[in-house]
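Q: Could you write out the predicted structure for this multi-component system? I'm mainly interested in how the pieces pack against one another.
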Amino acid sequence: MINKDQWNEIIEALTANWFRTVLTAFGVFWGIFILVILLAAGKGLENGVKKGFGDIATNTMFMWTQTISKPYKGLPKGRRYNFKITDVPSIRQQVPGLLYISPRNQLGGFGGANNVVRGLNTGAFNVYGDFPEIIKQDPITITSGRFLNYGDIDEKRKVAIIGDGVKKELFKPDEDPIGDYIKIQGVSFMVIGTYTKKSNNGDREQGQKEIFVPFTSFSQAFNSGDRVGWMAITAEDHNSITSLKKDVIEVVKTNHTIDPDDDRAVGNFDLYEEFNKVNGLFVALKGVAYFVGTLVLLSGIIGISNIMLIVVKERTKEIGIRRALGAAPWAIRGQILLESIFLTIVSGMAGIAASTGVIYVVNAILDGMPDTNETMFANPSVDLMVVCIALLILITSGLLAGLIPAQVAIRTKPIDALRTE
Amino acid sequence: MIEITDLHKSYQMGSNSLHVLKGINFKVSQGELVSIMGSSGSGKSTFLNILGMLDEADQGSYTLDGVQIKNLNEKIAARYRNKFLGFIFQSFNLITYKNAIDNVGLPLYYQGLKRKERNERAMHYLEKVGLADWATHLPNELSGGQKQRVAIARALASDPKVLLADEPTGALDTKTSYEVMELIQGINDEGKTILIVTHEPDIAQMTKRIVNLKDGLIIDDRRVEQVRAKSYV
């Protein structure tokens, strides 16, 4: 397509005025540099914030009971109620498309009193009565032993899985907790597993200080009967929990004789909605990055177009000579276009290379920082796709930048061009 | 070689129409060396531009080497210029950032010749004008006479039918002018048809035929006894 002679022509023309060529190229260099850096920064922020969600299944809602705020069917307002274990099959039956419904009971909580004893050590921990599915909704990593299974549920085994934080407080460092017993509110549970958990919304310490016991054992040991404290409900991947939330709450309201219009009776937190909000934020951020980056790039391109116009003006006579010597219009037009594209691509590539270099350095610095969990910024990067898009933009814009000057170059008649002194 | 009948050309200057060429009949045969003279405003440059296909006539016919030159689009005009014509300008019009050999090779570049062949031919013509040693020099390293000789080599490079020279000695001192004219005479001796626009009588005397233009008409067309430039040098 482009032979050696054309290359020579381009190089000759561009090197004829070095300083100006470099200045012009800088506009595009800067534009693409800003674009890539902005996109990478957005990605870094996104990675950082999303890391806060840990491995938690994001298509999940949490649901708990609150005071009923409306009288209904002869019942007064101000009542309190509890979810029952029977709510679970009834939700399961009436709301299709749910993946997991995990009823949970809980002891302790923030600032709770010491509730767990082992030998001379005591500690205050969150104790959860759970079904085995919970590990899929709020993932933890089992470091030794095993997690709960349905055998534990069915036989109401008094077994417990403890976090690293719990182990640290109750056991000596060289002790193996597996098979040993801890006393939770006076009831002995055998430790069958230990876990560690990835960060959860910055409260990393707290996440390691939890104890999981079978739901049924919890009910029996701590007298919660068929009551359920709260539920974690995950929808199947193809539909969002946000769209199913209403149905779930409706079922609960029917089961507990609550006015369908009572918005306060069922407390809930829709993680998916939150996640989507955050996601939406990053989509917007990406949009802004593209917008700003493209505009900066555009001004660079206008710069190129502008300079090419000046170059064409300056070279009017040369173009006239060339045409007098037999250069067809397309030979002239082609040369201007090629010069413009060449300049754009070279400076654009330099911009991409430089920004990638900066990203690399930032990554190296971030990796070197002690606890990356505390930062809201992680692993800024641009994917190959973005680079390809940028390149495409460059070629197109180089073409566009050259188009007007090329047209100007051949619009002048050779005779007029030659007359210019 | 060149046959022109009833050529008219006018320029639109705002609301006024300026009639520059008012019916020119002109014939040049192979191997002639013609000078076109006239005061400024006589239309001689316009005439040369039309001959050079840089401008188009409003009316009249123009035949060059048996080819009717009419209704040219820029692409065809460019090809004809490349094939039929060699231009020599008063201000040399060399491309400043190309060295002598590349300047001479430029018409060949637009013919699509490979670099190697281009350079061989360009070198041949540079030798012919006596500048082989200056092949790699840029125009600003050459004297005026040398520049014009490079330009002549360039005009010759595509082996055109006709050389058109617009005041070729206008920017040169007398001595250099005669050297250039000597070169042009030499080329003419080899059979090339050459047209020179000039306003210097001594230069015109070195051609074989003088055409006088006045107010857009040929008022005088006579053959002259050629003065060899060599006798002055």
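A: Regarding packing and overall arrangement: Chain B touches chain A at residues 49, 52, 54-55, 74-75, 78-79, 81-83, 87, 89, 91, 93-98, 106-107, 109-111, 115, 154, 158 (CB under 8 Å).
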